[in-house]
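Input record, target 12 of the design panel.
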């Protein structure tokens, strides 16, 4: 009686699996960017409470559409009348976020199954699986806690972290070459740059969650002065009482000015650090570093332009959403830079 022979693991099989995981991870990055953009659109169009319950919408798998469904929904939730221009953005965002979660779990499962056959980023893939579960919880708390700014900001940071880790996973699975002859100083500056950008993204999330994006309506001054009256203690009091509903914000003008003005100062710091990083990268003189310098400067210039446009035109929705999207693009550029510089440093010591 013959016995089936186990499949032989060959280099071709290994390359095929890695290529499949790379393509899947790359698609997941694109999906994560869509989720971040939809989340920004939902938040900025004041649709964060478009559905008062979770995970459904007024008890529906989609949202109430007919007059009869609307009447039943408003009877069940008398304090939140149905607004169709707010229900669909919230539910579409949830659908895409759910799809992203499924894709991440598929990736984590495939990586786990191939862990003994080839060197795969198991810990990163399962970290992503845990992160997307946490993101689901933050999505629920955003609704149940009525847009509590601490939760809204954490939810935004979680979305950016998910996209960044997916991009890092794709980089680790790719066959791309990273060969810059970077010094320790350049690698350190790149690390400082990504930390500064993450901090600025957190400030942007706090600004948006507290409805402080147009607290200063003039440029380059704020309320006509270089250092406006501001209540920094109240603006950054993470234990603030938010009341039954935070839609529209509850902070006074001086507190919102403090948040907005700090975000502006953060933008100045980030710009200085990234310009210095670009200068150091360009000085390396290799093709990879110079291409990344150009990409970094384009992303930075675009983000600065969008930020200024938000103030000048009083936060138009398309510009505000684009500002969120390019914040993520800038972060992914820095993830690429830090990974590439680290791999280059490893190759120098081989």
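The sequence produced for target 12 reads:
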């Amino acid at each position: 009686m013959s016995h089936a022979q186990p499949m032989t693991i060959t280099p071709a099989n290994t390359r095929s699996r890695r290529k499949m995981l790379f393509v899947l991870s790359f698609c997941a990055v694109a999906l994560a960017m869509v989720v971040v953009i939809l989340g920004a659109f939902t938040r900025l169009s004041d649709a964060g409470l478009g559905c008062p319950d979770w995970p459904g919408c007024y008890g529906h798998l989609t949202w109430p559409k007919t007059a009869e469904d609307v009447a039943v929904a408003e009877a069940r939730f008398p304090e939140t009348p149905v607004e169709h221009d707010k229900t669909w953005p919230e539910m579409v965002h949830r659908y895409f976020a759910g799809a992203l979660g499924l894709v991440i779990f598929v990736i984590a499962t495939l990586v786990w199954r191939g862990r003994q056959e080839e060197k795969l980023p198991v810990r990163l893939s399962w970290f992503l699986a845990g992160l997307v579960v946490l993101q689901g919880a933050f999505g629920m708390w955003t609704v149940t806690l009525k847009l509590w700014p601490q939760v809204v900001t954490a939810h935004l940071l979680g979305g950016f972290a998910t996209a960044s880790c997916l991009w890092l996973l794709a980089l680790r699975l790719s066959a791309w070459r990273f060969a810059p002859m970077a010094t320790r100083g350049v690698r350190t500056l790149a690390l400082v740059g990504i930390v500064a950008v993450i901090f600025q993204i957190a400030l942007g999330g706090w600004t948006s969650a507290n409805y402080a994006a147009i607290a200063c309506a003039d440029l380059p001054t704020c309320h006509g002065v270089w250092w406006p009256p501001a209540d920094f203690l109240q603006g950054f009091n993470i234990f603030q009482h938010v009341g039954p509903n935070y839609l529209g914000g509850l902070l006074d003008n001086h507190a919102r000015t403090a948040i907005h003005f700090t975000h502006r100062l953060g933008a100045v710091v980030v710009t200085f650090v990234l310009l210095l990083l670009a200068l150091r990268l360009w000085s390396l003189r290799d093709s990879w570093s110079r291409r990344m310098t150009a990409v970094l400067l384009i992303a930075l210039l675009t983000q600065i332009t969008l930020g200024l446009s938000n103030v000048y035109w009083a936060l138009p929705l398309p510009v505000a959403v684009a500002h969120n999207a390019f914040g993520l693009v800038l972060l992914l550029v820095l993830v690429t830079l830090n990974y590439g510089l680290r791999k280059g440093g490893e190759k120098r010591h081989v």
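The chain has two domains: 10-176, 179-350.
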